[in-house]
Specification:
Elements lengths: L2 H16 L14 E5 L4 E10 L2 E6 L3 E6 L3 E15 L9 E11 L2 E6 L2 E6 L2 E7 L22 E15 L2 E14 L14 E12 L5 E15 L7 E11 L4 E17 L2 E2 L2 E2 L5 E18 L4 E21 L5 E3 L2 E9 L9 E11 L4 E12 L9 E13 L5
Antiparallel strand pairs: 1-2, 1-5, 2-3, 2-9, 3-4, 5-6, 5-9, 6-7, 7-8, 10-11, 10-24, 11-12, 12-13, 13-14, 14-15, 15-18, 16-17, 18-19, 19-20, 19-21, 21-22, 22-23, 23-24
């Protein structure tokens, strides 16, 4: 008769053991943020806010700290929430989760590199940080935007030159042309490329006709394929393999084939600081150079014949892009200027020196479309005597790039 009450009491005691006397769960440890000073010292704590002048950090040992940016190299945080607040604006953004963020100070404000995107917090604004409500919320959505996409591994650009009417002496001509460029895995400017991470293939073709006549007056074309690879794990210089071809009827060059090996390097870029990407203030400037030893085979017009040459090609290129940052901190490219110069002195024929250069300006029309105006000058000193001259050409080109380039 007493078995049933005893069983009930036993079950109740077991339930108490597994509930009231169970070991409490270990609290989730808070992630510690880090302030890295210019001298290499570090201090950890909870990042509260930052503006163009100071960083506010709560340290378990030292309490609330206000640190000047002049003493700080960078600030790192992870698994938090953030938002930008601008003085005088009625509408404020919502807090957004992130996984990792790095803050650096520039003349135009605080650069926030959040996961794979970057935003400049302009002077007069501040960025605030709070704990995430759920630890699993570490998937970033930058200012209510979609999660950052992985940059495309390859890009294709198709250019169509606008028909031009030109007058040479008493002859009126119509010029047509276009270009195609394929870039596989465009390398990071701050890192030396590895095999197949920087494969470029490009071709250009232009023809001109006398007005009212079907005969071709000039025919120019060129193309190149290049492949780069770093020379060492810590090297800033890349090895270069290149093959290209060139034809220009006004210069008397039926076909020139060139094959070479050399080195390539980014000489200067304000997108980088000690091989680390940064957000430049005001503009983007990159200067690159390469040098290669070339074997060149030429087929010439009038008088006909062919030549085998050995030379050294030296090439320099520059890209300048002015940047505009709006009040929300989003950067926009106004336009881009591309400039290049090259010269190829020959080792076995001093008179056969070649040189050229180009200058262009491009305006974005959207994510994929751009409008550019370019000018180019080529000179071949070993061209047939009647055609030995500077060949100058210009083009107005609409270019479609897919997938859209990452800004």
């Amino acid at each position: 008769m007493l078995q049933t009450p005893i069983r009930i009491v036993g079950v109740a005691i077991l339930m108490l053991c597994f509930t009231g006397f169970s070991v409490p769960a270990e609290p989730v440890k808070e992630e510690l943020d880090m302030v890295i000073f210019n001298n290499g010292d570090r201090i950890s704590g909870q990042l509260r806010s930052a503006d163009s002048g100071t960083v506010h950090l709560k340290s378990a040992a030292l309490g609330d700290l206000t640190i000047q940016w002049t003493d700080i190299a960078e600030v790192q945080a992870q698994n938090r929430r953030w938002k930008i607040e601008t003085q005088g604006m009625e509408r404020r953004s919502e807090f957004v989760d992130f996984r990792r963020v790095t803050l650096r100070s520039t003349t135009s404000g605080v650069v926030v590199n959040v996961d794979s995107q970057a935003v400049t917090v302009p002077n007069g604004s501040s960025v605030l940080f709070v704990q995430q409500e759920h630890r699993a919320a570490g998937m970033t959505q930058l200012m209510n935007a979609k999660e950052p996409a992985v940059p495309p591994s390859s890009s294709v650009a198709i250019g169509l030159n606008a028909p031009e009417s030109v007058v040479l002496g008493s002859t009126s001509q119509e010029v047509f042309g276009g270009s195609l460029r394929v870039f596989h895995n465009q390398p990071d400017l701050c890192a030396t490329p590895s095999w197949a991470s920087s494969l470029l293939s490009a071709v250009n073709h232009n023809k001109s006709y006398k007005v009212g006549m079907p005969a071709v007056v000039t025919d120019t074309f060129d193309g190149t394929v290049s492949l780069k690879n770093r020379l060492g794990s810590e090297s800033s210089v890349a090895g270069l393999l290149v093959a290209d071809f060139f034809g220009n009827s006004p210069l008397g060059i039926g076909l020139q084939q060139s094959y070479g090996v050399g080195i390539s390097r980014v000489l200067y870029s304000n997108d980088c600081r000690e091989k680390k990407p940064v957000i430049p203030a005001g503009h983007r400037l990159t200067v690159s150079g390469d040098a290669s030893v070339r074997y060149i085979h030429q087929r010439l017009y009038a008088p006909g014949g062919s030549e085998d040459l050995a030379g050294v090609r030296l090439n320099e290129s520059l890209v300048y892009v002015p940047l505009l940052t709006d009040r929300s901190g989003v950067r926009k490219e106004l336009f881009s200027i591309d400039q290049s110069l090259w010269v190829t002195p020959m080792l076995n024929d001093a008179r056969a020196v070649q040189a050229g250069g180009s200058l262009g300006i491009s305006f974005p029309l959207g994510k994929s479309l751009s409008l550019s105006v370019t000018g180019e000058d080529d000179f071949f000193n070993n061209a047939p005597k009647a055609k030995r001259k500077n060949y100058v050409k210009s083009a107005v080109t609409v270019t479609y790039t897919f997938p859209p380039p990452q800004k």
